[in-house]
Every structure is written in structure tokens, then in C-alpha cells.
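Quick one, C-alpha cells below. Sequence please?
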């Protein structure tokens, strides 16, 4: 009986430990921990500024109401304030992003290595989607109208496209103070130093000349 009880307690402890081990941004242990960018202390995040030096400006960011310049090949503009722009986000596990789109503008396939995301359409008609992991690689997508909300699960590749006739605007919230972004095309064809064209040619099942052409804009 005692052995059975000990086994149950051990399994429970291991389950709880597994849950804790998956936590990537633990809850803060104080009211706030404003990032001290001048501190020499290196932690997963930033050391805390002395609370006596904290002001309201550490929690403030202005400018998300300003429409971004979409005159670029992608036809989109990303305004992504993270802990670098809002020091008060440190340890809170959240951040936000505004995207502006010209007609047919896209936010190309990308992923956030440290966050899931919830997207809201403020203006226009936007196609949003993500791709599930192997072995399925299933595309999950939806056409969104003003006021619609769509969720991108943690770490999965996703994208947005303005499919309406006019401009579009979306606002998103992410579950990390510094979610990071890996643009798939940039990472694969624009790495420094570049990935061997032999590797990419085999991965994409194309001739090396095609790989070289795709890498050319990043050289």
C-alpha cells in the first residue's frame, strides 16, 4: 500500500515538474520589473530597474495610430513595440504589433519562436492562415473581415494577406515580451553565411541555379 502511494506521489511530482519545465516566461515576483538596459547582469530577459527610478513613461508607447509606409515589395509595414520600446513589459509575457497593408500586401510566412499570437482586423479584408507541423503540414486559413479575430498557435508558420480592394490594418497581441520573428524566406535564402546551395537544392528539389537566383537579393 505504501509503495503504491509513493509511486502515485512520484508520478504526480513528475507531472508537475514537466508542466513547470514548459513555462517560458514565469509570472513576475513583484508589481513590475522595468527593464534596466544599462545593467551588466545577464538574465533571461532584463534585470530590474530600481523601482524608485521608474516612471509612467516606462510603460508607455506612442504611435500605433500612425499608418505605416507600405511602399515596399511586400506592400506591408510592421510596427512591433516589444520590451525594447516599452521597458515595463519586462517579465510580463506580452507584446503587441500593428500591421498596415496596401492592396494585395502581405506579411510573408514567418514564425515567432517564443510566442503564440491573436490577430484582430481593424480595417479591410485579410486572409490569415498557419501551417501545422509534420507530418500533416495542413494549411488552416480563413478570410477575415473588420472585427474578426484569428489565433496563430505557438511557433507555427503563419501569414497574412490583404485581399480587399483598399488598405487593411490588423492589430495583434503576442504571449511574449520579446516574441522574436523568423521570416522563412529571409532565414533560408538570406542567412549569413549562406546555407550551401547544394543543401537547399536538395531540400526544395530544384536546380542550384534556382537557389542562386533566390539568394541573390540577399547578397
Amino acid at each position: 500500500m505504501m509503495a503504491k502511494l509513493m509511486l502515485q506521489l512520484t508520478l504526480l511530482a513528475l507531472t508537475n515538474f514537466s508542466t513547470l519545465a514548459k513555462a517560458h516566461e514565469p509570472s513576475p515576483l513583484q508589481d513590475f520589473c522595468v527593464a534596466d538596459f544599462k545593467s551588466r547582469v545577464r538574465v533571461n530577459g532584463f534585470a530590474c530597474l530600481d523601482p524608485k527610478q521608474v516612471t509612467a513613461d516606462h510603460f508607455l508607447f506612442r504611435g500605433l495610430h500612425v499608418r505605416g509606409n507600405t511602399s515596399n515589395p511586400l506592400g506591408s509595414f510592421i510596427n512591433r513595440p516589444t520590451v525594447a520600446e516599452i521597458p515595463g513589459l519586462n517579465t510580463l509575457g506580452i507584446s503587441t504589433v500593428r500591421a498596415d497593408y496596401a492592396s494585395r500586401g502581405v506579411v510573408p510566412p514567418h514564425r515567432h519562436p517564443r510566442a503564440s499570437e491573436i490577430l484582430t482586423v481593424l480595417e479591410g479584408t485579410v486572409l490569415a492562415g498557419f501551417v501545422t507541423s509534420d507530418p500533416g503540414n495542413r494549411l488552416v486559413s480563413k478570410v477575415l473581415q473588420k472585427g474578426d479575430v484569428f489565433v496563430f498557435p505557438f511557433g507555427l508558420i503563419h501569414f497574412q494577406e490583404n485581399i480587399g480592394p483598399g488598405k487593411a490594418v490588423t492589430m495583434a497581441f503576442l504571449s511574449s515580451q520579446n516574441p522574436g520573428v523568423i521570416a522563412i524566406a529571409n532565414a533560408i535564402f538570406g542567412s549569413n553565411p549562406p546555407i550551401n546551395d547544394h543543401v537547399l537544392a536538395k531540400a526544395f528539389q530544384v536546380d542550384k541555379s534556382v537557389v542562386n537566383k533566390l539568394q541573390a537579393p540577399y547578397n
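Confidence is low (pLDDT under 50) at residues 9-23. The longest helix spans residues 2-21.
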